[in-house]
């Protein structure tokens, strides 16, 4: 009907450009009363049949006066239906054209787009935070390893200073105490080994060559060697 009105707007407002315009469109006024149908059945005079036929005629009339050139762009109108028609189909048709529904759909789409944008920004910040934490953890790990290595080096140096020379408690007694009588060969090897690590001047035995060499460089050892030589010279002079 809208297309028909647009095409004959001037004629309808002024009674026709030539004054003899005749309106041959469907008279809708007769359908604005309950007397146009009988009952709500699907028979020929029933509510659904009467208005279904009316709407089909309106659609046909609308299409005849439509300016749409491409048939693919023509609007597809649903049938008025009958007493058994699916209500959801009608609701879907109305909602598709309801401006309130369209405005609400647009608002929902904008809100969803904003949510997606915020979610992406949150994921980006989380990735940056995770990368930063990983870098900090890596730096802390390297720092901890460096500190641990320094501590180990300090401990080794400290042990070297403290245990380089054997203390009195580390002296090995050249006796048969604790020896196994059934293994004389091992005892002899042990005695020979400790003889090489024995300092007669200081009367001390050592556990390793390194400890023995460190001892020989000590001030105490040199003093004892000097004293022992002096005693030997005095004994030789007295015998001479």
From TrEMBL:
Which stretches of sequence are listed as region Disordered?
64-84, 154-190
- Gene3D superfamilies, alphabetized: Classic Zinc Finger
Quote the SMART domains the UniProt record gives.
Answer: ZnF_U1 (SM00451)
* Keyword Transcription regulation on entry: no
Q: Which UniProt keywords apply?
A: Metal-binding, Zinc, Zinc-finger
Its source organism is: Tetraodon nigroviridis (Spotted green pufferfish)
Protein name (record): (spotted green pufferfish) hypothetical protein
Q: Which InterPro entries match?
A: Chaperone_stress_response, Matrin/U1-like-C_Znf_C2H2, Znf_C2H2_jaz, Znf_C2H2_sf, Znf_C2H2_type
């Amino acid at each position: 009907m809208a297309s028909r009105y647009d095409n004959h707007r001037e004629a309808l407002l002024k009674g026709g450009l030539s004054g003899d315009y005749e309106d041959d469109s469907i008279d809708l006024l007769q359908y604005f009363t309950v007397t146009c149908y009988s009952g709500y059945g699907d028979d020929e005079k029933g509510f659904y049949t009467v208005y279904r036929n009316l709407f089909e005629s309106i659609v046909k009339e609308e299409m005849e006066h439509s300016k749409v050139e491409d048939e693919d762009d023509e609007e597809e109108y649903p049938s008025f239906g009958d007493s058994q028609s699916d209500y959801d189909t009608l609701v879907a048709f109305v909602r598709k054209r309801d401006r309130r529904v369209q405005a609400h759909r647009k608002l929902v789409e904008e809100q969803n787009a904003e949510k997606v944008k915020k979610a992406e920004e949150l994921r980006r910040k989380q990735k940056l935070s995770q990368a930063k934490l990983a870098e900090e953890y890596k730096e802390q790990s390297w720092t901890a390893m460096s500190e641990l290595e320094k501590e180990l080096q300090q401990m080794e140096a400290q042990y070297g200073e403290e245990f380089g020379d054997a203390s009195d408690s580390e002296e090995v007694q050249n006796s048969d105490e604790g020896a196994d009588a059934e293994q004389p060969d091992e005892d002899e090897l042990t005695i020979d080994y400790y003889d090489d690590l024995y300092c007669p001047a200081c009367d001390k035995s050592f556990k390793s060559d390194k400890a023995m060499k460190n001892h020989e460089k000590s001030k105490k050892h040199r003093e004892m060697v000097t004293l022992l030589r002096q005693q030997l010279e005095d004994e030789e002079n007295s015998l001479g």
